[in-house]
Amino acid sequence: MKNSPKKKTIDNSQKQELLSQLKSPLLDSPMGDEEKLGVVMIIVLSLLECTGSSKVAMRTSNGKTLTIELANDTH
Description:
The chain is an alpha+beta fold. The chain is built from 2 helices and 2 strands; from the N terminus they run ααββ.
């Protein structure tokens, strides 16, 4: 039987540090808001691909759920 790799977890301060490292250059960039959002979407898609996932969901502070899902083109 093959052992599955252990998931690495990080604490909240490490998460905040990583978020700051990603967020600061983006906020300081002269790009427009739509371009910045495009960069964020590319990062999320890359992370989905790296993890073998096709969907991620996050509950927002107002109780709504933000979901990003890779879907097959139906054309």
